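**Polypeptide and fold**
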Amino acid sequence: MVQELLIAVVAAVSAGAVYTAAAARVVKQYERGVVLRLGRLRNDVRGPGFTMVLPGVERLRKVNMQIVTMPVPAQDGITRDNVTVRVDAVIYFKVVDAASAVVEVEDYRFAVSQMAQTSLRSIIGKSDLDDLLSNREKLNQGLELMIDSPAVGWGVQIDRVEIKDVSLPETMKRSMARQAEADRERRARVINADAELQASKKLAEAASEMSAQPAALQLRLLQTVVAVAAEKNSTLVLPFPVELLRFLERAQQQAPAQPQPMDSAPQEPAPPAPAEPSASSASAPGHLRPAPRAPSAPSAPASGQSRPSGSKPLARH
C-alpha cells in the first residue's frame, strides 16, 4: 500500500513537472507575449518575465518591440522629367501594438517591406531628378507618410525613412558634369570681370592722383622694375625717364612760339648775273654772223661797256 502511494506521488510530481515545463514561458524585456486560447485572442498581453500558458489550449506568440532596420531593395524607375534612375532606401520601424501585429497582418515585416518598395517607386515617378539629388528631406517625409498610413492598422509605427543612394546612367553623369563645369566657368568669368571692373576704377583713381604729382609716376616705374627684377629670370630694358621725355616734349612745343630776330629773316635769292661774251664768240672780219634772238626786246649796251677793237659794223644786205 505504501509502495503504491509512493509511486502515485512520484507520478503526480513527474506529471506536474512535465506540465510546468510545457506551460512555462519566458518573455524577454524587449518582447511582448500575445496569447491565443483555442485560436481566440486574449485581451491580456503578457509582459516581460516568467508566464504560464495552458498546454494544448493556449498558444503564446512573442513579438519583438525593438526598432527594426530594414533595407529597401534598389528600385528602377523613371522620374517625371524622363530620366532613368535606380534608388534604394532604408526604413526604421517598430511594433507599438503586439496584438494587431499578430492578428491584423500575416507577416508584418514582409508587408512593410513590400509597401516600402511600392511607395519608393511611386515617389520616383512623382519627383524630378533635381529633387532626388538635392531635396531628399522632403521626399523622405513623403515616403514616410505613404508607408505609415497602412502600417498604422498593423500595429506598426514608421519611425524614419531615408533614401540612401540614387544611381544615374553614365551618359547622364557626363552631362551633369559638363553642366556643372560650364556653370563653374560662368561664375569664374563673372567674378573675374567684376574684379577687372573694380581694379579699373581703382587704377583710374590712382592715375588721377599721380597726374598731379609727376614724380609719383617715376616712383611707380621704379617699383615695377624692382618687382620684375625680383624673379631673376627676365631681361630688363630701362627706358628713358619720364621726366626727360616730358622736358623734351615741352621744349618741342615752345620752339615755334619764340619770335624770330630781324637779322635772321630769310633773304630773297639774287637774280643770276648775265653771262659775259667770251673772246672766242667774237666774229672774224669779213664774216657775217647772225645775232642770237632774245626772248625780249634788245636792250642798249650798258654804259661803260666798250666795243671790242678791230670790229666793224655789219652791213645790211
Observations:
- Confidence is low (pLDDT under 50) at residues 263-270, 273-292, 294-317.
- The beta strands are 24-27, 31-37, 40-46, 49-52, 58-64, 68-78, 84-95, 156-167.
- DSSP finds eight helices and eight strands in the chain.
- The first helix runs from residue 2 to 23.
